Prior knowledge:
Elements lengths: L18 E5 L2 E6 L2 E5 L4 E8 L5 E7 L21 E3 L9 E3 L8 E9 L5 E13 L2 E6 L3 E7 L10 E5 L2 E3 L6 E5 L5 E6 L10 E2 L7 E4 L3 E5 L4 E8 L6 E7 L2 E2 L2 E2 L12 E4 L5 E6 L8 E9 L3 E2 L6 E6 L2 E6 L3 E7 L10 E5 L2 E3 L11 E2 L5 E6 L10 E2 L7 E4 L3 E5 L4 E8 L6 E7 L2 E2 L2 E2 L12 E4 L5 E6 L8 E9 L3 E2 L6 E6 L2 E6 L3 E7 L10 E5 L2 E3 L11 E2 L5 E6 L10 E2 L7 E4 L3 E5 L4 E8 L4 E5 L26 E4 L7 E8 L8 E8 L12 E6 L2 E6 L4 E7 L10 E5 L2 E3 L6 E5 L5 E6 L10 E2 L7 E4 L3 E5 L4 E8 L6 E7 L2 E2 L2 E2 L12 E4 L5 E6 L8 E9 L3 E2 L6 E6 L2 E6 L3 E7 ...
Parallel strand pairs: 3-9, 18-27, 36-45, 54-60, 69-78, 87-94, 103-112, 120-128
Antiparallel strand pairs: 1-2, 2-4, 4-7, 5-8, 6-7, 8-9, 10-11, 11-14, 12-13, 12-15, 15-16, 17-19, 19-24, 20-25, 21-22, 23-24, 25-26, 25-27, 28-29, 29-32, 30-31, 30-33, 33-34, 35-37, 37-42, 38-43, 39-40, 41-42, 43-44, 43-45, 46-47, 47-50, 48-49, 48-51, 51-52, 53-55, 55-58, 56-59, 57-58, 59-60, ...
Amino acid sequence: MALRKAGSVLVVFFWSVAVVLGQDGWSVTYTPQSICALKGSTVHLTCSYTYPSGTVTSIFWFTKMETGVKPEDLCQDPEYAGRLEYHGDKEKDCTLRIKDLRERDSSTYLFRLLTDQEGGTYTGSPGVKLSVTDLQVKVTGGHQDKTLTCITTCTLTDNPTFIWYKNGQRLDEPTSQQYSVNSYYSDSYSCAVEGHEDHHSPAVCVRGESCFNVTYTHQSICALKGSTVDISCFYTHPSWHNVTEVSWFSKWESGVTKDLSQDSEYTSRVEYHRQTEKDSTLRITDLRVSDSTEYKFRFTTNEARWGYSFPGTTLTVTGLQVKVTGGHQNKTLTCITTCTLTDNPTYIWYKNGQHLDESTSPQYKDPVYSNYVDSYSCAVKGHEDLHSPAVCVRGESCMNVTYTHQSICALKGSTVDISCFYTHPSWHNVTEVSWFNKWESGVTKDLSQDSEYTSRVEYHRQTEKDSTMRITDLRVSDSTEYKFRFTTNEARWGYSFPGTTLTVTGLQVKVTGGHQNKTLTCITTCTLTDNPTYIWYKNGQHLDESTSPQYKDPVSSNYEDSYSCAVKGHEDLHSPAVCVQGQSCKRVTYTKRRICVLKGSTVDISCTYVGYVTSSLWFSPKRNASWTNKLTPEDLTRDPGYAGRVEYAGRESGTYKSPFTLRITDLGEEDSAEYRFTFKTYNFEWGHSFPGTTLSVTGLQVKVTPAAEGQKTLTCSTTCTLTDNPTYIWYKNGQHLDEPTSQQYSVNSYYSDSYSCAVEGHEDHHSPAVCIRGESCFNVTYTHQSICALKGSTVDISCFYTHPSWHNVTEVSWFNKWESGVTKDLSQDSEYTSRVEYHQQTEKYSTLRITDLRDSDSTEYKFRFTTNEARWGYSFPGTTLTVTGFQVKVTGGNQDKTLTCITTCTLTDNPTYIWYKNGQHLDESTSPQYKDPVYSNYEDSYSCAVKGHEDLHSPAVCVQGQSCKRVTYTKRRICVLKGSTVDISCTYVGYDTVTSSLWFSPKQSASWTNKLTPEDLTRNPGYAGRVEYAGRESGTYKGPFTLRITDLREEDSAEYRFTFKTYNFEWGHSFPGTTLSVTGLEVKVTPAAEGQKTLTCSTTCTLTDNPTFIWYKNGQRLDEPTSQQYSVNSYYSDSYSCAVEGHEDHHSPAVCVRGENCLNVTYTHQSICALKGSTVDISCFYTHPSWHNITEVSWFNKWESGVTKDLRQVSEYTSRVEYHRQREKDSTLRITDLRESDSTEYKFRFTTNEARWGYNFPGTTLTVTGFQVKVTGGHQDKTLTCITTCTLTDNPTYIWFKNGQLLDESTSPQYKYSASSNHENSYSCGVKGHEELHSPAVYAPKNTSVSVSPSGEIVEGSSVTLTCSSDANPPVDKYTWYKKNVASPKASGQSYSITNIISEDRGDYYCEAENTIASMNSTALMIIVAVKQTSVMTAAVGIIVVVLVLILCLSGLMCFRRPTGGSDATADTQSVRPDCNSDTSPDYDTLASVHPDPNSDPNSDMYTPLNMKTRSPEYDTLANVRGLYH
């Protein structure tokens, strides 16, 4: 660059010898005496001097010498400011260097020195004459040929080499002062001297004024950093050319330049201006040191381009610095720059930040006294804000503030740091620092106390002597000057000195260009600090390729496209989207870019959009980790973190332009995020990367800062600036203060007072209270201001509290009802008794636990504590509890449905959701919105729950209609008393016919054959004899079904589920059912008022159905109390017990109100079930006052009017009763050989020397039972259950017998076997240890037979009754009658009567006897019906009878003669032929050989039996009836 050669000097020597001028030892030698130098160059005025004696005290150069006027040092002349350098010394060298020569520098320069001797002043005459010239091109010659001469106003000697330029291009060949050329209209020429190429002549046209030429107004400019500069030129071109484009540039490579208006470093800082047709001005604002370079102008015509290589204007950007020179006492201050400022400015000086009016030169006019405290700074008029840093005159200990930036340009909504560092004398101590922007008459206001800035301003420091003010959420109104002030113990500093000027701007997209192509520029009202990188969006989508403030490519004029810009790091502060053409482009405009709201409140985030929308949604990029596809945003309504808290308002599908609002309720700090809106049309989707609205959620905190003596300033602070400028509310000791409504409040500092703040309209979201002084004030701080919990679940409401250290806490309680300062302790409230517990982790921490939550529990809960001096906690807001259940909301079209698990409030702690389909747990979805669209199926039902509370699921709902399969439990949780009976019910709907159903408990899965296949509870040995079903109807479409469990035990506490099957469906096993809790009763004794006790009948769960309680005193029932609590006097002898109405036999153990010395009997068992014939022990232990002596003990079971009889004296028990004891106060009654008549209640009585005890209090109820085997099951498989009339105590091991033999494999009360096995087996059961007391055996029917009445001949028209007999256990429960060869049964019942019999009724009859085990057929009975005949017929009959008798006799003979082992009759006759050894009637024997058996051996000596199917009709006349055995 030419600038780098500025140090070279071109001079002409008029004399070749030095001029030595002097006298009497004084001399000054100038070498040379005359110099001619180029304008803009640098010259050295070389000289040396001598003096006779003494010490040189002062030396300087000057140009003006008038008689009687003291010469003025050139260093004090503002014309030379920054351009003079003295290279000499105070010995002999006096050389002066002058830079950036100007024509007005032409003058004679003289040197003057002064010594400490008398008359020691000398001026060297005649000095050095300096002439300053520039270069001009002179054109001479004819019409065609021209001679160009590079002329100066003085002659440059030393034979310099000249350089010539044609049309701005350097010509290599000419090096002389003249150059001959042809005259051509378009050519321009310029000259320079080698080594000074930057100081060339103006270009001239060879012919006329129409050549190509650019002439710059200044060849160099020096301007202040931060200021604005205008670089100008004028240009010419042939008249037939038309200019098409102009630009300025500072960088070029190989003829390629970049327009500064397109350069990201200059965008928004560069403007082009023009006053005439052929001039141009480049204006650069907010100058930076990096802007120092050469700037050139280029223009393009329709035929040529001009301006590449010709030297332009060199800009140097400088700051101001104060240079301190001089001795120890007096100092000289000079305002220096790195270049000589253009236009000879007027200087301004500041002392200690105060403007000094008297000095206007770059050198402070008066010597400055070296004072440690004083600091100085300089500036130039018109640029006071661009002053130099202040400097200390002496050392680094003066009072001074230096700002890091004199001006800052920042985006609206962003955060800015305005910094400074300061100094002060070391013996000063800083007492206060502040920033301010308003001051009147020296009075300033600390910004941290300014309501416009409160919560937006923070002060930071990194070292002891720096300060940074951070302003967040910048507003346009924040644009002003900010200053820093510090106060020491001796001074205050910082009022008038210029500070940092902040300008706040937004972004706008400026559209320029023609009809087709547009240029987009991201503009601001000031130049953004720190040269940011720009970001561009098209239709909401981030465009990666462009990072400059001007979009890099021309944009096509498309009516649909919209564009927006932002800067990196502030994407959320983007410009509004603008249409390239018209106003109908698709775009989204957010109502607010940033919103700050209170934790727990509700916010509306809104936008307007343009487009014919088919679908739209809101989403948060913060939640992308949970999206199925990280590139595809998911609707916020489906996000589990927002379940039940998000809703949309204003959406209208198909709307062209509409507002759309996202509402989020119950805000948490984790909701702080950016929220974006996107929409789709038929062929367009708004980009997902377009920044939306940033939400900040904050709580309130009270910040305490010192103020005046004894005062404190309270500030209700937030982590962000609340939107909409709210009104504040203040509380003192929990009481609302009416007067203050601002964010700050001044108070007296008093130990006991606490303060809290809130915002109007959000009083329930107040800040924690703080103590004004220390931690000893009265205060309660709740962990949560609001809680949302599930109905039926348990909730913990916590707080911590403080009090003055000299107070002692005497009582704590929680309450939710108060009137006129009167509260009721929840632990004493009947609605909460047994459901409320108080816990504490530390001395000043309390937790209220409420179990089995109900809807009615929804209210505000507060904590109260009492000390020995005060009571606290009434009026301050507590914790608001909301109790909710689940509901499944079904939305969507006709085909696909969306399921959402909704609650009336937002559940605390962001739970994980669970979904069930047809009772089966679905693993894949954990959000409150079921993840996939659900097909509209009439059969499917869905339910939801949250992890950890599966039993509190929503009711199952149908996706379509109301006919889906589902199970609904009547109660989700049941709490009942040990020993009682419970009904667990549900209703169910089966779309098809229900084929089977059962109840089961997952707790029992370890005993299932297949862990995945539930087993019917009726088959579980742990429930043997205690479980039954009610309401089941196989095939029922919809019906209730009840599980009844008797004699409940604590181990029965479990979850119980119902499942059913249809022909093609099974209800899922994982669907939560009813949770049963079994509890006993306990009396809990707590202190109350003086001499009083509060008794609470407590349980481990809350009893269902709000029962009425019964109280006993010393075993006597008390009529008046029916609540769970009872207040009594504490008296030694009294004992108390409680029960529940309807369950008096399941009372609690009695307790002594005071100590263990009351009269009391406690039975080990309230009920016992024992086997008939076994032995039982009934035990108790008892207490009495220590001063009583036992005189008698006894057991009894009958009493009348207080009179009892000792069982040992009762004849029924004599020899079967024994009394035993193991220690002093226990007793056991042993009864042997138990009988069913022993079933009754047994009580213990003891007598002391002062009292008798034990009459009325419930004792132990004994039930004596035997075993029975119950048979159930289908046709093939049978289940045997060993049942008793009560549940045997101590859960015995069961044993089974088959045909009297012990079966080793089964030890449960149920035994299964296949009905296809032998029906002749019998089964019985018992228990281990009592094998001899087994049940009667059960077996299938046997010895089944038929008898007939009346006996004898059956004649037509008469009646006959057949009776079936069988031996069976269980007894036969079904008799069926059959006639052979007839398909259907004839009758049922044990007897079968045939009246008015006719011949068609003849045949073989048999019966089937059936019990629950099997069935058995009897032998067949043949009925022969005789026909009524005439007398002839009667005679014939007589003859036949005789013949038959003869035949029978012959048959008898044959029986004795035949061999044994004859075959049976055919199967279909069921052995109609009688066996010879049978007891068959002789009458039948006569018929034995009427017809031979065709299958018999013809050689056999045997007669064929009569086959009733093959006999001839004539046998019908032989109407006699006998039994035909099989």
